[in-house]
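RETRY 2/3 - previous attempt timed out on the joint model. Re-submitting the same 1096-residue input unchanged.
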Amino acid sequence: MQLEASRKPLTLQLKVGLAIVGAIVLLGLLAPWVAPHPWDTISMRTRFLAPNATYWFGTDEYGRDVLSRLLMGTRLSLAMGVGATAISLAIGVPIGLASGYFRGWVDEALMRSADVLMAVPPIMLGLLFLAVTPPALWKTALAVGLVYIPQIARLTRSVTLSLAGEDFIQAAKARAETATYILFREILPNAWPPLIVEASLRVSYAILLGSALSFLGLGAQPPSSDWGLMIAEARSFLDRAPWIALAPGAAMCLLVIGINLLGDGARERLDPRLKSRVAT
Amino acid sequence: MRKLVALLTLAFVLLAMPVSSGRAQGTLRVALGTTLSQLDPAKTTIGDEYVYVHLVFNGLSRIDRDMTVKPDLAESWTASDDLKIWTFKLRQGVKFHHGRVLDANDVVATIKRILDPATGSRARTNLSMVDKVTAVDPQTVRFDLNISYAGFADVFADRQMRIVPKDKLNELSTNPIGTGPFRFKSWSPGDRLELVKNPDYFEQGLPKLDGVTLRILPESATRMVALESGAVDIVWSMPYESVEKFKNHPTARIDSVSTPTWDGVILNNARPPFNDVRVRQALALTVDKAAIVELALFGQGDPTFSPIPPSHPYFNRSLKFNPPDIAKAKKLLAEAGYPNGFDVSMQVPQEREQRVRVGVAVRDMARAAGIRINIERVPFASYTANVAGKAQMFVDGYFARPTIDTATYAFYHSTGSWNDQLWHYKDARIDQLLDEARKTNDEGARKAIFEKFQAIVEETVPGLVAYSAAHVNGVSKKVEGFRSTPMQWLELKRVSLKP
Amino acid sequence: MAAYVVRRVILIALVLVAVSILVFAITTLLPANVAYLILGPFAQPEQVHALEHKLGLNDPVWLQYLRWAGAFLKGDLGESTLMNRPVAPLVFEALGHSLLLAGVSFVLVAVIGIGLGVVAALRHGRALDHTVSIATYLGIAVPEFFWAIIIIVVFAAWLGWLPASGYEPLSAGFSAWAKPLIAPVMTLVFGHLAHVSRLTRSSMIEVMQSPYVMAARAKGLPERVVVLHHALRNALLPAITVLALDFGRLMGGIVVVETIFAYPGLGRLVVFSIQNRDLPTLQAAILVVAAIYALANLVADLLYAFLNPKIRFGDAA
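RETRY 2/3 succeeded.
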């Protein structure tokens, strides 16, 4: 089952998604050079300025430029999303592969463990993991990654199940290839289209969950400009300076929408037969 | 579809119906920001709990708005010449909420309970000078102290020292009984505490209100909205950033008062790097306290050197607030062995935004000298277990204490009970000064002693006491007779609601 | 079918046991000395040791767990270290409040979500479709806490239409009870509409183009009947699966929403107990949440099996 339709023109959805995500990633990478003002320096005279020509998104309670903080925060959100998803994939995919290929008690054990992790809403599981240790953003990314392992594992498993019966797998078995070879050189390369789509959606979920945890105080610490933290700190000033909260909120909205468009567009392109899965 | 529309209309109509408020006219609703963990007065520790304690319980003495100590449950007291034997005469006919009349045995039981380490009361060390407490007769209590202590009567005005009934000691956490103007009715943890008028209160004609409801609303935006919409009548300890909004408001006003309550950066004097006085002094040299007042309190406070506020007669006016001197700070650090500065973690309490702001401000200021601070927000509840007295550096603050002695001794004296929870500070000169102050009632002598105290504290920097904060309440214009008090509890005996 | 249900219920019970072990294990790692928390910072070391002994904190962890589990099964959920009162009434009262919030939100998400999906499908490709798409997309693209704050600012602070805090008892009157619920419900509903509406829409579009519907039209049935009786029933199936999943998501969403609106439900209880290291309450609350979650999933699976003709009648359908 090779990739088809590499020659089809990009849909509008895909183009818009790519544009949005691409722009944000670029801005995030270039943030230290693109940011017009320092993101971390207190300045008494410039507090609570409404958006104007010098400070495009206004300033916050310490006089810091909101736009610059937003740009620096982009890296944090992207890192959270990608980092957490990478962890989920790194652990979840092998589990799913093993589960789907070996079946039997391995499958039962792994899937029941996944059930246990999925028995509690993700945010509560995240809260639980983070409660045992002083907060730090990388720990939040780790916790979010752990929380989403079961979903990745399940998906990988179902894809592996459907592939395991295929002829080319039987042929590899007949050739007495090792299980590792079959899993990683035969199954995985063919399993990745749905995985990629799922992973992209996971990134957006990870960003949302990570920012919720930051909002509750269990993620980034001041004076970090993580978007969730920015919104949490801006709460007290909503009536006099709403831009402090609105900017990161809008940014998060844009990023998540961009990722979703990209994911949906990629799914349609890679395998239109995949039902529009609303990921769990 | 039509059915759906009909349903929605019905719902709309029901919702638009006038609210049957279900509350008695004359019940004051107060918004607090933190839930109460304790209903037992001896065990209370936070400002929100003190609001409740002050309404339900009385002490032998009380503190007035002008910070002078007046009789409360005790109508008078006398001391022996050596200030070691104190005799309190109790008021007659004061009834507890369950009907029994207060007598000296209740006082003895309360005090013994506080002195018992098993109770775990913070006030225990306030009574460390008490050798014996006895009920001489039903109206008289006698205290034998092991040292001369001039301000002994003042101690009883404090929150944890309130008198409780000897026969209800085990129920204080679930069904508290006191002698105060309001009686406990119900407590829904995390939601609301309901109090009703005590018709047998010993001050004639008081209280005027039918009841008080304390509502827990952790989100500050919610508290502001509640005040504006009239859902609550008083917002206790309003966040400073919201003060601006209510300056010219149609239905609510700001009532503020300056207090000895202080916030500061506590440095652990027993652990590196702050065990070296030069490092502490270097940090102090980077800090601009006026700017901190602006940033953290939005101007609602004043810089200070110690828990003694600028409004107090003992404040040392000859000491200056020096502007930051980064060069000198760097020099001191180099001398202490940190030529390139150092990294350190600082804990700040998550739910206290103004203290978080103090932390962020100090971090920014200290950077200039090479002190690189990493901020960690920690739930306030875990401060006691993990932070206080253990961390190298943390932001903390303390409520107004009834007297200058109680505000300083426990914190700065090497044997002070709060010293270990803070900075582990030891200075023989300070010990001597504080001990001397206890022995004299002469105002002039005490003033001189405390001025010296402030000078030494400024020189040796146990921690950076940043400011004395104002206490601000948001009050609906329907509330009559309310004034904020520097002790930060709510005085509601004479308050009434306009119909 | 019955066998399937029994198997699932047993599985749920096992999962709950595993969750309780997981929670217990994690919470024993919490860096806080429980005895100091209860007695306060000025406790003497002897008191601390005595209390630790009394609470069995010096026993091996597995023994502590068994003791706790045994008590739990007998209905003794322990005592809250934060509030000095039994956990069971606290947790069950909070549960009731959360179920109310989640339940009302769930119903609205279902009704409005399906309604919007149908409408968008019928006007597919046109302005209304795009508007619904964008609006619902906004709902899920931004975290709930953001919408909660916006709703507080717009509806409570600026317009003054709604109260900003989330709970009055029913005894205060229907209107007083219902009004504070509107804002948190709005937040939850807005945050979850897109899942249901998008799926309903695409499912509906597919069904509307199916031979089955074309046959119904060819029979001359009025369009409304075609849509409501024929198309919708078939389009609903995927939507129902998603709805069931959404109940679980709502349970997650209540954590932040209850915290912001000061609504005394399980979500807020979990956050409080974590912040204050109140282990007994935390353990009980999380178990209750897990149980509800599992039951919701079970109901969803059963409903799906019941409604899906393929499963119900075998592959012959």
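The longest helix of chain B spans residues 443-460. Closing ticket.
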